Input
Amino acid sequence: MIDHLNWTAASVFVAFFVLVTVMGFVAANWKSGNLDQLHEWGLGGRRFGSWITWFLLGGDLYTAYTVIAVPAVVYAIGAYGFFAVPYTIVIYPFIFLTMPRLWNVTHKKGYITGSDFVLGRFGNKWLELAVALTGILATMPYIALQLVGMEKVIQAMGFQGQGLMAHLPLTIAFIILALYTYKSGLRAPALIAFVKDIMIYIFVIAAIIIIPAQLGGYEGIFEAAGKVFDARAHAAGGNPNQGLLLTSAQIAPFITLAIGSAMALFMYPHSMTGVLSASTPNAIRRNAASLPAYSLTLGLIALMGYMAHAAGIVACPKDGSVVPYCVTSPQDVVPQLFLKMFPDWFAGFTFAAIAIGALVPAAVMSIGAANTFTRNVWRPFVEPSMSPEREATLAKLMSLIVKAGALVVIFFMPTQFALDLQLLGGVWMIQVFPAIVFGLYTRWFSGTALLIGWAVGFVSGTWLSWGATAWTPVSTSFTGFGAYNGLTSLVLNVVVAVVLSFFFKSNAPDETKPSDYEDAHSHA
Amino acid sequence: MRSLLKYLLLLVPCVLALWTPYYNTLDPRLAGIPFFYWYILALIPGSVIFILAAWKVDSQ
Output
């Protein structure tokens, strides 16, 4: 099990893991509040200023899975993997515009989740339920993928095991995470995010300076990657779907994936949790202007896919012969690159950064899902008169259940299952966009129309993604060109919601008023 | 008028980021990096300038 363990890397890894564990438990007393209240446990008492929000949102959105998966796609097919960069560019103007409005109304009305807002605005508890369940359903596989990211680095340190034993380190890490999240709530990932983000910045800066210096500069790196793609295209009979540039067939999917992913991201409960825990709307605006620093980091991390080609990291031979630093899956590219290019202690540092990079979003995601379940599924449908203490107790319990569910997925289902669900999760999540974002500006839509639109989008998006051999994010049905299914189905959703709003005039009460969405004068 | 300017300022970086056919090219390179890559990376700090400008317009 540990015969091939890289002891130096593993020691550094464990040391950092112990550090953040202590921080996770100590966080309960940070900016202290009554953790028996849901808005204290689940939103940090809405007391996070610009800096804390910056680290928390950065740690929450740019996850371990991103660090593993984006360079993996770039390594495998090239430019197409860079859709993540325009995606994270268009997101911040959108946040700047809409999220202060959401913060204002949730702050004034005491809402904890996006579904709380939808209920208050449209007075339709079935729409509220649809928004809540979509969020929970889309979040579960997202947490599971964080575990995939963590497991990749644990394997890279030489840990091997059979059957359930293979997941032992991951299980231990997750139980510890579950315990301090239970105790400290959102304060735990907020405090740990400082360590995680600083570690990620350190390893990225080291990588973009030291790796090119050893591999003939960026010119050499792009040249080497270009040669690999050319050779593969040649071997495949010259019909490339990969390369340093997008093929003409990839352009429309590239653009629509960037737009659709950006629209979906802030509909996820964990993104909203990060935004709503800010202390003022201006803290959100400051973050919209400063979070792009993480996008730059992401772009540089994406380049590691090409650095791996220049470093000679190749696929492991199918016959089982031993090649040092080879990868059995493109997702092993970043760990192998660091093992090859850096001393063991620094590889261990990088692996710790990636693993802690999984803990922060996993904690926030489980809290976001737990808040949503408690507020928008359990309270309205099972136990309408819950005390604030009872809400907090239930949410803490739910955060444990959600994490256990993610572990079960990793234990008993193939990784591909989590990947497919995550892909569908984005397609589903974007369907709540009209209810939440349009709802921030107008009450013209009726709740019933939005609910039917959501259902149409959900079903059509799932149907479009169903392929003969695998689930795919892009299809040519309806549009004639390759388009992201989330965006195509959202168009159907909006058309249905608009048309039906003419027929279903909703008399349900709207408990918000226009001034609730504007900054209070003290913040202006 | 001022709010129109705000929306326009926020729209510019989105259009620049999504106008993919126009930046899907290798040349001109910068320090050996193909245009596609350095353009999209340079646009990240560029987008911040537009967001700050929109904020300035909005708070006046």
Notes: The beta strands of chain A are 474-475, 483-484. The longest strand of chain A covers residues 474-475. The two ends of chain A are 59 Å apart (CA to CA). Chain A has one domain: 7-437.
